[in-house]
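Incident review: delayed structure delivery

Summary: a single-chain prediction request sat in the queue longer than the usual turnaround. Root cause was a stuck worker, restarted by the on-call engineer. No data loss occurred. The affected request and its eventual output are reproduced below so the record is complete for anyone auditing the incident later.

Affected input:
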Amino acid sequence: MRGNGAYLFADGQDEEQRLTTQATALDPLTARVFDRAGLAPGMTVLDLGTGAGDVAALAAAAVGPTGHVVGIDKDPAALERARRKTAHLPNTEYRHVDIDDLDGMDETFDAVVGRFVLTHVPDPARALAAAARRLRPGGLLCAHEPDLTYRWTSRPTPLWTQVRGWILDTLERGGVHTDLGPALLPVFREAGLPDPGLLLEAPIGSGDTSPAFGWANIISVLLPIMETMGTAPDEPVDTDTLRGRLDAEAAEYDSAVLGPLVYGAWCTVPGS
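Output delivered after worker restart:
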């Protein structure tokens, strides 16, 4: 596991679009993790780093009208987006709370969940331990985190190799844990938690089912940061055509496109 945890994606319309397209690829995977972990009707759920509210919406669907979901985030603008997106879900609410301030919350929950959150905190084990303290006895802790260091296409291609290098270089220089997913087992243990159940999945496809759009959107959002860090390519990147060029090159090389490898990990914490 590399990095010291950081959130590099700036707030704004591009970031909202990135999260929306990310959810298109990842929501079915997260829903399966929630089902496997045992998220059930009537539960109260704390959603860490709720962002645009996509994970909160999945949790709300799992716990039903008799359950309740509290999404927290340190970004007030993100919370407003989440409120708008889930206005049709009366069993959701949102609060301005940083993941570092969980011990300042008074109430406890039946479950704490988070997707692509621990990869952006300096000490994932410490954050997990704090999350566990927000659970009632027998509470469920569930994390869904990526590995971005794998090969993004089934066959290497020049443009895909470039894009992968630009993104990983920028994230790692910025302190993001780019390979947290496969480290979740030792992270749970370091947090003093039971060994978790584990599930590994990834979006994969070609042509109309290719998840290349996700990587193209990340480049669009990261470009200003890449320029500041000195990780931007020497030649200008045409972000408007990038997705099409990535898919075309994958087709030329008869290559499938893989989204992030996403690791689900969950456990019940008896002595919370």
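Verification: The two ends are 27 Å apart (CA to CA).
Action items: add queue-age alerting; document worker restart procedure.
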